[in-house]
Request: fold
Amino acid sequence: RRTWAGAMASASAAQPVRAASTGGMGGAALDPGSPARGDSGSSFLAEYREQVEAQDAGAVEVVRKRFMNDDQYVGGWKNGKPSGSGRYVWADGSSYEGEWLHGLKHGRGRYAWGSGATYDGEWMDGCMQGVGTHTSPDGTRYEGSWVKDVKHGLGRKDYPNGDTFEGLWRNGMSDGPGRYQWADGSEYSGEWHAGEMSGHGTFVWANGDRYDGEWRDSHEHGHGIFTWADTSVYDGEWRDGVKHGRGIFYPAGVGPNKAQRSKDANRAKRLAKGRSVAAAAGSARGQAAGGAGGAEGQQQQQEQQQQRRRRRQGGGGGSGDADGSGGMTSDGGVRSDGSATSDGGVTSDGGAASTDDDDDAGAGAGPTSSRARPAPRPSDA
Reply:
């Protein structure tokens, strides 16, 4: 680019100067001539300056064009292509107004489709790339990152029915950490894959129900904990949205919280300690009785045995101490087979309280089709 300083240097050297061609812009080559033509030096410099500035200004000229297919363009033009700022209107009603480079949308600009959809944001090499906002005719709105015309990166999408999704996108679909909020107040926060809830996440329904655990294809799948609004809890395995496999059901008020687990553990320790003390006392009595030698010892054993027989024959069942079998008495809270009592939330075979995965009657009602959760929407983005 020629500058006024360059012109001054040329003039001071008193040499003829011929500018380069305008690169097809249609301008004529500049010839400042010779100072010896009789003009003063100042007049020559002023004339040369005007010619240089005129050619520089014409490097990107402003044009108004109408093409044979009825497209129209108004704006910067260079080397036969839009360049700089300009507005292009297509025959179908679509339009773009913003920055151009070598005939491609590049920089900041706004594109409006004939359908009514719009994109306002960054462009690169003719593609939506960077940060921008896309609005559909139905009111759906996405604001976030783009790569080659698709949603990719961090973004937020608002749906016309009031649903929203905010999180990571990959190739036009929600993928990675994200949070979806339904208009009815339900919410899922967790991992996504290819537009579906997949991985670990938490779903909270508007009625207070809650699921924390693993997901696959927008269904509970793997291990998870479902907590109903009445504080009933199912902790166990799931398959395709239904309870399947090993699990434990806790009725209302007996949830698997830390305090409850600590209480159960302490109670188990006390019971084990009682059994151990009773067994040790019985062993000590046997050893003491066996250690007495001679006739005196045998006589004492016989007398003790007779006394025990008389007590048994006298009809007393005892006061409820630990018996010879070492098992707890009937009021000990544990069945003879070691399983929890009927109010403990676990069946005698150790499985889930409900034997039918699809039977969700009563307090154990889970996320079935009769109370369907809101359908995720990011997959249709």
Notes: The CA atoms of residues 212 and 286 lie 55 Å apart. The first helix runs from residue 4 to 13.
